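## retry 2 of 3
previous attempt timed out at serialization; input unchanged, resubmitting
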Amino acid sequence: MNTLDLLKPVPGLRVLISGAASGIGAAMADAFLHAQAQVFVCDVDPAAVERAKAEQPALHARVADVAQPEQVDRVFDDVRRELGGLDILVNNAGIAGPTGAVEDLDPELWRRTIATNLDSQFYFLRRAVPLLKETSTCAGIIAMSSVAGRLGYAFRTPYAATKWAIVGLVKSLAIELGPDDIRVNAILPGVVEGERMSRVIAARADALGIPFDAMRDEYLKKISLRRMVTVDDVAALALFLASPAGRNISGQAISVDGNVEYL
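## retry succeeded, writing output
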């Protein structure tokens, strides 16, 4: 096998991506489908799931709230029935959470952020790992963290706390699952172009009492390359990590962020 072939995921790879009916998750699902993978996605938004299935007839999909373990269990019932097993888990689902000073945060919004961003990773892992141990094809776990998982993020403490925790989870699981030939890595996207980032910028602008455009410029000034990344940039890294070229990469927290210097 030559080097270029190593960069391509194995055809027929069975991939599960959570929170993947839109945004980064949808871009990863599209990339894996183009790489001839079998892809199953779940998302909490029924309309987005239906739209994704209409746009990609080969996609396997169902509606699920990843913060509810019984709904995650139903996802895996479908995965086993429709894919026959699993080779790659992409723990992608997450929410932005509240923006504000820590003393002003609503405890319920804090709990919802932890449940969606962190607890869900565990719910998927506990069901995925037994399936990954059964496969001999590039078994791997990719967890979506954030640049906020390596830098402090004032006024976004619930979100940052979950993203730092995901990095710790990944580094610990890489040690735990290495003897089973299962690779575990985290992707840390930076400022990603799109509607979600626009909402984050708007919320932070409101919290600080400054105009949206000024807040957007502040975000760009923090990036060495002075530009946002795209969902396709993130999807490309996920493909690489799932390919034979990534077979000796594990326990890593890899940023795709243009080098965000501070938040």
